[in-house]
Amino acid sequence: MSKITDYNDISQSYDSVREPADACILKSLMESLTGKCVKDMDIIDIGCGTGNFSEYFLRFEPRNLALMDASEGMLSKAKEKLQSVPPSTNLSFKHAVLPNMPYEDNSFDAAMMNLVLHHLEQDPDGKSFPKIVQTFKEVLRILKPGGVLTIISVTPEQLEANWFAHLVPKNKERWHKRLLSHDQLKNCLSEAGLTLKSAYNTLTASYHPDHSNPEGPLSEAWRRSISFWGTCTEDEIKDMVQNVTRMKNEGTLQEYVDTHEKLGIYGALHISASKKEVQ
Ligand SMILES: C[S@@+](CC[C@H](N)C(=O)[O-])C[C@H]1O[C@@H](n2cnc3c(N)ncnc32)[C@H](O)[C@@H]1O
């Protein structure tokens, strides 16, 4: 269960602000690292949300597609959305809270975790990530030998590259402790027994289509669609709204966005793929 975002509430509006960015890259990674086509795979979508990534994979008719999430609201939206299922696919949904994964050992060829890691609690110093390691150990258990885990996450550098993060410097520091760097992610995977095979920063797609809207931070609905805002205090939000309103009135708001936006350099997302080695 996320402590920073109320996903039961957000499930109603999630699909208007999120896209399954780079889903085709996940498919390529899964196929090249397992040597199988999706249609011959058993796949799990961990922290599936409203099923946007699963919807993409369903087109390729996987043998099994399992969706799991801690939010009943998100799961019920996913069920509504994924009504049209190819006859060759067995589709299933499960409510479960990570690190628990109520699935048999050696069940899946591929697992994906898209934008979920930052919801798992860690030590406040930001140096150790026990829940994440526990979760990866569970992934190792449910993957078949030779199976693949793909992860979409955001690195601290990519957080810095989001123009709006600079509006609340204290909150930005909180997120530096919450987000894993590439090396920290690699260490957590290795501690759990998974081998990192490839990692990319994607420059092309933003997962949030309205991300560059200069007046976005003034809207509560816009803020609720980005987890960053869930850890701000009320006073921080009040100060930020005053600042953004001032810049808007002075005509300097767009310049602020242009100065701080660096997604074109650091990319919006980090994509990695790791493998459960065949013993
Ligand atoms: C940002 S959303 C991503 C949803 C989906 N993967 C996507 O990219 O569209 C994060 C999801 O992780 C789920 N989540 C957060 N903490 C969780 C936990 N401890 N166990 C299972 N799911 C969790 C939330 O309920 C939410 O649906």
From TrEMBL:
Pfam families: Methyltransf_11. This is Methyltransferase type 11 domain-containing protein. Residues 44-150 form the Methyltransferase type domain. It comes from Magallana gigas. GO terms for molecular function: S-adenosylmethionine-dependent methyltransferase activity. The lineage of its organism: Eukaryota, Metazoa, Spiralia, Lophotrochozoa, Mollusca. SUPFAM superfamilies: S-adenosyl-L-methionine-dependent methyltransferases (SSF53335).
